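HUMAN: I'm a chemist; might I ask for a sequence paired with its structure tokens?

ASSISTANT:
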Amino acid sequence: MDTKTHLEPAKTLNNFFRTLGEKIIVYFDFLGGLSFLAYQFVKKLIPGLRQFGLIIEQVYHIGIKSLPLTSLVGVFTGMVLALQFIVGLERFGLQLYTGQVVGISIVRELGPVLTALMVAARVGAGIAAELGSMTVTEQVLAIEAMGANPIVKLVVPRVLVTTLITPLLTIIADVIGIIGGMVVTVLEAGVTPRFYYDQVMRTVQMDDFFSGIGKTIFFGFLIGVIACYQGLKTTRGTEGVGNSTTQAVVVSSVAIFVADYMLTKLFLIF
């Protein structure tokens, strides 16, 4: 009994380091696979551009179908921001200048991040589920057997469109969010639409606009690559498809927040 009791801490410590080592291996395996897929995307980008029909199809599914969701999120973001800042600034008699805070907040941060999160939730999940179903039903292997490259036909159109469409969706969400903030500010603070517009234009500079839009290019690329990677590595049938879909959304969301901090810091330096 004494020997067994003496060995239990060593066994527990051994299990801890074993589990930690396995997690680290899985983490770096994921990063390696993701990086390799991104490299393959860049390598096959030019041949993938010839898949014009597939690209247009993805523009419809990824861009146009996502527009109502991102616009809805944008307008209510602007409205909530305006309402909260009116209450906060009213204590100092500055509620008339709500447009300045709403404009800069939406353009620099909330518009890009919330739009990217909505794209990750809707588009990332859809791509992972679609490619995951194709993987477990061996449709991807059938594409290879026919002599086609799955990266060119499946990955390039989706990653390319998410990279290009996310900034466009963000611009629309920014505009709608600022308009939503204007409606609330006019009703609650008693300012005119012209005064609100002047406050926004006086505060939001081109650097602010391009800083926010520039981040969404990276966000869209990360969403597309992560979703495609999760879909293509799906195993274990329908259960695996569900897990891949969940992982695509979770990992994309975390990647957006991490990239947001790093890119914001980078843009502030330059």
About this structure: The mean pLDDT is 89.
